[in-house]
């Protein structure tokens, strides 16, 4: 892949989405669909690229969204094919009629939200997002069940019947999990609530699991079958990063090389503003060319004037030269959607990689910057 990216990607920086890898990531979910009858929704907040949504359309049962604009785009691309699920803490009264007309399912984030908006429109299936009060993320910034969480109805508030009109429940408690124990523990926590009520129309298990990295899915298969037999007619999964995370590359070129306080610094033509989670969470993104036991190291820094615009220190067999291309990998989720033109630098060009060749979708230019800021 590295050689092909070097030879065939003309723009730098560029975001490249490997559709062959996306198709491979779909396989464990297709197994679960066929083995259990569960339904798969793509969580478009990870990467709302229209070309991706269109390619996924034949392989998923719908899309999950978090806003009116996401719902509009998903609806345009789905048409009448598939379900459209929404949950958000920021549901607006002035948008609700349109949201309800677009969506097949809405999981209200709080009892207050449901009481104020639940009867404003009809035609969609009403649900609640549940906070099971189980934390699995080491970093509380990722933890939907942190103290004083804004995400979901505290399960302790649902000791009686579910509010009238509620047909389903949704939860999301994990992030980038490669084993299923958090999901099984969450289901166990929900069992008393589920036993108290008549069979739900649906239960949405949320996202946060990297199915392609989970060796044994039989436990999940059996759990879904049990849920469908006992608690809910339909079961939904919401993969986002699981489909696109390891399918995304950020290609970049070395602009400058110098020493700073005894360490080589390579300035790249991209920046952490093209993948803000790097700065927000102080992450070091994986680099395709890094050699873990390499003889030398260099700091890779972005081209903006932000002092903290640094990707990290990486090891190599030799220090890359000015003009050389490098590739960050596993950046398919929550990167491009958050990217900005800080300092006036263009956004990465966007490519789809299909059947061994790249297809250029968009190259950012000055007119795009001008449209954003020439007001």
From TrEMBL:
EC numbers: 4.1.1.96
UniProt keyword annotations, A-Z: Cytoplasm, Decarboxylase, Lyase, Polyamine biosynthesis, Pyridoxal phosphate, Spermidine biosynthesis
Top EC class of this enzyme: lyase
UniProt-annotated location(s): Cytoplasm
Domain Orn/DAP/Arg decarboxylase 2 C-terminal: 135-332
Keyword Glycosyltransferase included in the entry's annotation: no
Record field: catalytic activity: carboxynorspermidine + H(+) = norspermidine + CO2; carboxyspermidine + H(+) = spermidine + CO2
Transmembrane segments: none
Major localisation: cytoplasm
InterPro entries per record: Ala_racemase/Decarboxylase_C, De-COase2_C, Nsp_de-COase, Orn/DAP/Arg_de-COase, PLP-binding_barrel
Cofactor(s) the protein requires to work: pyridoxal 5'-phosphate
Reported function: Catalyzes the decarboxylation of carboxynorspermidine and carboxyspermidine.
Subunit structure, as described in the record: Homodimer.
The family this protein is said to belong to: Belongs to the Orn/Lys/Arg decarboxylase class-II family. NspC subfamily.
Protein name from the UniProt record: Carboxynorspermidine/carboxyspermidine decarboxylase
């Amino acid at each position: 892949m590295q050689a092909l990216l070097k030879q065939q990607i003309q723009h730098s920086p560029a975001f490249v989405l490997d559709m062959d890898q996306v198709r491979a990531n779909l396989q464990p979910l297709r197994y679960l669909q066929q083995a259990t009858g569960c339904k798969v929704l793509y969580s478009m907040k990870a990467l709302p690229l229209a070309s991706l949504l269109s390619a996924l359309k034949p392989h998923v049962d719908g899309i999950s969204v978090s806003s009116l604009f996401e719902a509009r785009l998903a609806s345009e691309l789905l048409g009448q094919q598939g379900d459209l699920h929404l949950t958000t803490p920021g549901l607006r009264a002035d948008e609700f009629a349109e949201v309800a007309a677009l969506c097949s399912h809405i999981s209200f984030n709080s009892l207050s939200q449901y009481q104020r908006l639940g009867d404003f429109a009809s035609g969609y299936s009403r649900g609640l997002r549940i906070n099971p009060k189980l934390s699995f993320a080491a970093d509380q910034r990722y933890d939907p069940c942190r103290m004083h969480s804004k995400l979901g109805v505290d399960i302790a508030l649902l000791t009686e019947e579910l509010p009238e009109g509620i047909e389903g429940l949704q939860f999301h408690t994990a992030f980038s999990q490669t084993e299923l124990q958090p999901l099984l523990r969450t289901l166990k926590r929900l069992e008393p609530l589920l036993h108290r009520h008549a069979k739900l129309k649906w239960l949405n298990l949320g996202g946060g699991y990297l199915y392609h990295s989970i060796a044994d899915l039989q436990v999940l298969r059996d759990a879904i079958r049990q849920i469908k037999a006992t608690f809910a007619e339909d079961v939904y999964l919401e993969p986002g990063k699981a489909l696109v995370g390891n399918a995304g590359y950020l290609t970049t070129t070395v602009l400058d090389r110098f020493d700073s306080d005894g360490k080589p610094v390579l300035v790249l033509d991209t920046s952490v503003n093209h993948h803000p989670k790097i700065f927000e969470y102080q992450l070091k993104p994986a680099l395709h060319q890094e050699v873990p036991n390499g003889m030398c190291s260099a700091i890779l820094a972005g081209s903006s004037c932000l002092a903290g615009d640094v990707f990290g220190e990486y090891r190599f067999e030799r220090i890359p030269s000015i003009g050389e291309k490098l590739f960050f990998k596993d950046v398919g989720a929550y990167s491009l959607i958050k990217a900005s033109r800080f300092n006036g630098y263009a956004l990465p060009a966007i490519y789809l990689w299909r059947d061994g060749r790249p297809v250029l979708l968009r190259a950012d230019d000055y007119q795009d910057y001008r449209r954003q800021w020439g007001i």
